[in-house]
Amino acid sequence: xxxxxxxxxxxxxxxxxxxxxxxxxxxxxxxxxxxxxxxxxxxxxxxxxxxxxxxxxxxxxxxxxxxxxxxxxxxxxxxxxxxxxxxxxxxxxxxxxxxxxxxxxxxxxxxxxxxxxxxxxxxxxxxxxxxxxxxxxxxxxxx
Length: 143
Fold this sequence. Notes:
The protein is mainly α. About 60% of the residues lie in helices and about 5% in strands.
C-alpha cells in the first residue's frame, strides 16, 4: 500500500496496523486511527554515505580525516534530532489518548527476538552470516 494511503487504510479497516518510528506515526496522524502501538525496538533506520574508492583514496590524508570527523559529528547531530523527534512524537501520541502504547517487558522482548531467529536464518544468504553475527555481537544478543 502506498504510504499516502495508509491513514485511510487504517481508518477503513483495510489494514490493521503499521510499522513506523514514532515520528512517522505521529506526524502522519496514525494515532487517530490505530488503536495500539507496541514499542518493540526491533529495528534501526540508518543511512549510508558512499564515495568512490578511487576518489577517496586520492584525497590527502588530512582531508579524509577532516571529512571523517565531520561525518561523525553530522551523524551524531542527526541521530540526536531523530531521538528528540521520536520522544516528542511519543509524548504527543500519549497525550492524544487515542492509541494505547504497549511497552514490552524484557521477557517479552526476548521472546520477540527468539521468534525472529528464523527470519535471520532465512536472510543469511542475502545479508551474510558474518553481518548477522556482527549485529548479535554489537547488540549483546545471544541467540
